[in-house]
Amino acid sequence: MITRDRTRQSPHPRHGGRHRPLAALAVAGALAVLATGCGGAEFEPTFESPASTPEDTADLTEKDVNAWLDENMPAALEEAGIIGGAVSVVHDGEILTARGYGHSDVAKEEPVDPDETLFRPGSVSKTVTATAVMHMVEAGEIDLDTDVNEYLDFELEKSFDEDVTVRHLLSHTAGFEEKVAGMFQAPGTEVDLREVVSEDPPEQVYEPGTTPAYSNYGYDLVGYIVENVSGMSFEEYAEQNVLEPAGMDSSSFEQPLPKELESRLSEGYAAEGEPPEDFENIADIPAGALTASATDMGRFMLAQMGDTQGPSPVLAPETLSTMHEPALGSESLGGLADGHRMTPGFFEEHRNGNRIYGHGGDTNWFHSHMQIFPDQETGIFFTMNSSGNPGSANVTLRTALMEEFADRYFPGAESGEGEVESTASEHAAMLEGTYANSRSIHSNFLSALYLVNEHQITAQEDGTILLEPSPTTGKPAVFEEVEPWVWREVDGGSTMAARVVDGEVEAIGTTASTLMPADPVTQSSVSLPIMGASLVVLLLTIVSWPIGAIVRKVRSLPKRDPAARRWARVLTRAAVTATVLAYAAWVSVGMLAMGGQDTPFAVLEVIQGIQTLGLFGVIPAGVVLYDNIRRGAGWKRYVGSALVLLALLGSGWFAANFAMVAGSVSY
């Protein structure tokens, strides 16, 4: 049995969202629920080794891999609440095995066939897109370091003077914020890739080449460059120059799928026991619209190692070498270059001292991961057609499978040489604090969502650091310093590297993302209590109005508001009501956005207007407080009117800081 200490791990949601116990209510609270996915008990898969094969001497053979997978996958999928999945493994220039488990269609009791059943591997599509781009680089039609405006028929909106290059787009260092709106289109809608990248683009929030920030938009943009330069649709170019040469005849970027493939697509499920969902028409075609079988993804992995099963090599060896090397160095990234970096298309990873390049991917219903071990000429691809229960189960399962595969067939340990003791405690103390993920939204109301996506670093007594949660697994992870400003995960394959400028930690690069020091004023520990307390006061205020009216009527008490000040009280009530309504509306819009449903910009502008009315309510609320004090209205009225004023100030401060008042409505 292969086991490992998982006592430091805790439940985690999908897609990087993190749940924190929030003070109270409203937008961030509701968005926290959205970010966490499904609740439920923690799922921890255990992978057994077949009795005939000692776990520390396993040979990478078809017989052993099949026995190991068959021993573990059916039970693991069932325990995770996942309907069906498939695995393909390649080794020494051939597909070693491809296995299917569970069902592709529950109602028809149709089993998963790794050769025939098609899945949607989500962002693993980016590796195919990057291959298409490198094909054009190899042909001399695109240069990795040329300003992308040379290849576009519109002017790219930028916030910095520095050029954005194809290399930046392929390595997620162009500096764009996250974009959510329009990600999914109604089934049957024809997607115009030029429209996707040219209309309402996300803001550029980081200087190009300096800060890795994962960007679907960046890959849409580089996909459109392929389309614009080649004169072919992106889908056609990818098929003719990547899929067909690799022998991937069961794969396509087309939406809807070609007739000959349509019936082979697995149903996608939110969870076990739920009905199948509709076909996901993905607007970000180059970033995530690929459909493929597990066997075809095996062929793709072989093509990445120069061993094609198709009619011709996809890329020349020297092009593949460029594609598998880190895209940027220390001259651009600074200290971040000492950790894991992006290649043009892949995440750089390590485990047991072995070099790995890989990529994960998610749609709403499909979840996948691919890892290639270039030095061992080996690759593994795993895909699932449902999220599991809890909703994070798919992440836990695929992470465990990749770790167990590496531990079983390529065991070993990371070298302990170079471990740092003299600076460990000092550097750990300097890193301690709250961090935000670089993959975030800055310019619109969804920026509030990322308050529940913060990471906490704590310096420990032994010089190690505790990162909660790890961007890679969503669970707490302990890191030890192995070089100055470079840390390696204890009992794991992740690394961290810090960029330190003038004694200040500017950024921390991890295997999966970049962490930026959170703004001490607007971080969740400050913002959420202010927002929560403010809304509690405003809600209690609204509840008190009818109660007060009833009490006055029962006791036959006269109204005590002087007519001269009644306008201030009326406007204050209007502001309180507007503020609560606006926050309720933002919650609703946020829920729709996270569910892939767009809200018209005009509606968002109306909500912003209502929010602004609430913000301006601090003026009449201040008049009411002053009037109560001037008239000697009593301590109850002093306290009540002061709390209302503070609540309007607090809720307005939160709304202004998180673009709910004057921010962009393009999200």
Automatic annotation (TrEMBL):
Residues 1-20 are annotated as: Disordered. InterPro entries: AmpC-like, Beta-lactam-related, Beta-lactam/transpept-like. Keywords: Membrane, Transmembrane, Transmembrane helix. It comes from the Bacteria. Residues 9-20 have a biased composition (Basic residues). Residues 70-395 form the Beta-lactamase-related domain. SUPFAM superfamilies: beta-lactamase/transpeptidase-like (SSF56601). The chain crosses the membrane at residues 530-551, 571-594, 606-626, 638-662. This is CubicO group peptidase (Beta-lactamase class C family).
